[in-house]
Amino acid sequence: MTRALKRPPSKIAVVKYWVGRSGSLLLCDLLRPLKPGDGFPSLCVPDPRGNTLKAIATSYNRGHHWLAVVLAGWTFLLIIAGALVTSNDAGLSVPDWPTSFGSWYKIPRLVGGVKFEHTHRMIAQVAGLLTIILAVWTWRVEKRRWMRILGFAALGTVIAQGILGGLTVLFYLPWQVSSAHAALAQTFFCIAVAMAVFTGRKWVEEQPHVEFDQRRPSLFTLTLLSIFVLYVQLLLGAMFRHHGLSWWPHVLNAVVVSFVVAWTAVRALSVYSQIEAVRRPAIVMLSLVIAQLCLGFTAFLTRVAWGRDEVQPELPMVISTVAHVAVGALLLATAVILAIQVWRHVPVAFEERLPRTHQDPSAA
């Protein structure tokens, strides 16, 4: 029998506990105060997950949650609109910023590349407004301090994203700024999706079923590794699309991404398939990486192999590259969701040698 102890201390105290053969224990049991003679060692340790994502009781706020969901959906639309601008070479169709053809509010004639660039700007403005409302609402209704910080982190990110978008116009599309603009958009999307998860009824009200992960590398480590390789892939793809890098680093890293993401998903499904919160994002992530590989191959053919000498962007290239960007964003966000759910439901356990005074077999 192994005694499992978790990481660093925080305000919420849970008991040190014994892990049975299944390695399974309900969180409600973990949070139950110790009573004399209840069979557990008389030691208390802080909540294993530190200031955990559910350390403070909060209530479900339907309106607040739906605003977070709408912001996440709207951001996904914004990413598609941005990808359309790049794929149609429409980045300088509106040559000034923050105004459009010298006006703050007039809508120009939506012809040629202007319809892509100006539509992108209008969607971005709405995203900024939704983010401001969500940040203020979160500050007013949330008891969880980290959620209030996350709300303002989202606001800071969207402001930085707007500034990068302006700089890329004012400095005539430097690949460094344009690539950062593309990467930060997906970072903001992940923040919005995470806020939608954290404010959901299920997250707020459920008593999560916890299973401790004693494998190495842990599933949580694999999810973080998946996020890392996906983010590297995002940067490489953005640098290629904005003419700062050749295509081959992006293609080579796709092999690494496929391996790591598949490893993570298969581990989650083979060991923790009984946990719905882990099983669902793992299935979605595995499906998305397969779709992304197909789209990547199509985008390579239409842009690199067949469309290299085309004067104007061809429709097959536009469709395949925009779909590739969109599915990539969904894949990164799904990896983030999986990491969050694994952090909550499958915390990492490690063994600790028991002091002699606590090695009484009757305590087990």
Can you characterise this structure?
The chain has 364 residues and is mostly helical. It contains 10 helices and 7 strands. It has a 3-stranded antiparallel beta sheet, with no helix packed on it. A two-stranded antiparallel ribbon has the order 2-5. A two-stranded antiparallel sheet has the order 4-6. The model is unreliable at 1-51 and 359-364 (pLDDT under 50).
What fraction strand? 5-15%
Separation, N- and C-terminal Cα atoms: 8 Å
Q: Note the total helix count.
A: 10
- Quick check: average pLDDT? 85
Q: Based on helices, strands and strand pairing, what is the structural class?
A: mainly alpha
**Percent of residues in helical segments?**
55-70%
Report Rg. Answer: 24 Å
Strand ordering within the main sheet? 3-1-7
The biggest sheet amounts to:
3 strands, antiparallel
H/E series: EEEEHEHHHHHEHHHHE
What is the tally of beta strands?
A: 7
Poorly predicted segments: 1-51, 359-364
Write a concise keyword list for the protein shown above.
mainly alpha; disordered N terminus; three-stranded antiparallel β-sheet; disordered C terminus; single chain; 7 strands; 364 residues; two-stranded antiparallel sheet
